[in-house]
From TrEMBL:
Alphabetized NCBIfam families for the sequence: transpos_IS6 (NF033587)
Molecular-function GO terms, alphabetical: DNA binding
Name of the protein in question: Integrase core domain protein
Residue ranges of coiled coil: none
InterPro entries: DDE_dom (IPR032874), IS_Transposase (IPR052183), RNaseH-like_sf (IPR012337), RNaseH_sf (IPR036397), Transpos_IS6 (IPR047930)
């Protein structure tokens, strides 16, 4: 049975839709900025069209990226870094939990209203369902992590210490830049949706430029763009 083409009912070409979604999710741009960039390239679409495309196709693109990457990420079981960051929704504080592996891949993003043991346990179970159990789990000194890890029988895998968790803390920076451009969030559901999509797109285009030569970086960037253009192909 052939998979239905998700672009079949749209007059705009799939290449333009992919480009618009990539610009909006990957770069710290407003919807009207994306509209202006596309107009400069001779593409006349409204910012509301970009908004609709991102809501419709963003999760689809992210799911396909995640599916492809999970199969080739056996090394992610080696070492995880866990951290949470404060995010305000309509003036109310929420918490964005994030699991990052030793190579900087964002494995899981999860939004909760609290950061107690119950929230930490739910976050850990969700991440381990997808990626399996890591050998080492690096956290800060938040006691919720220790209590949750003890309940699932992984307390002996926890490591805490000064500067050990910089990998997770640095992973928040791209999201923070994007959050400022979006003028914050209005609903928990929209935060969860965007955090998950942004993490997948960031993983896809993150080439660790400082660790590779210019020729290798260009090859990796071209490969990432080619793979992006083939997402959700009929």
């Amino acid at each position: 049975m052939t998979k239905p083409d998700p672009f079949s009912y749209f007059k705009t070409s799939r290449e333009i839709i992919r480009l618009a979604v990539m610009l909006y999710v990957r770069l710290p741009l407003f919807l009207r900025n994306v509209e202006d960039l596309l107009h400069e390239r001779g593409i006349d679409v409204s910012h509301e069209a970009v908004r609709y495309w991102w809501h419709r196709f963003g999760p689809m693109f992210a799911a396909e990226i995640r599916k492809r990457r999970i199969t080739g990420m056996k090394s992610s079981k080696w070492r995880w870094h866990l951290d949470e960051v404060f995010v305000k929704i309509n003036g109310e504080r929420h918490y964005l939990w994030r699991a990052v592996d030793h190579e900087g891949e964002v494995l899981e993003s999860f939004v909760t209203k609290t950061r107690d043991k119950k929230a930490a346990l739910k976050f850990l179970k969700k991440a381990m369902r997808k990626y399996g159990r890591p050998e080492v789990i690096v956290t800060d000194l938040l006691r919720s992590y220790g209590a949750a890890l003890k309940e699932i029988g992984a307390a002996d895998r926890q490591e805490t210490g000064r500067w050990l968790n910089n990998r997770a803390e640095n992973s928040h920076l791209p999201f923070r830049r994007r959050e400022r451009a979006m003028l914050r969030f209005r609903r928990m559901r929209s935060l969860q949706k965007f955090a998950a999509v942004h993490a997948s797109v960031y993983n896809h285009f993150n080439q660790e430029r400082s660790l590779s030569t210019r020729p290798n970086f260009k090859l990796n960037r071209a490969a990432a763009l080619a793979e992006w253009r083939g997402l959700c192909a009929a």
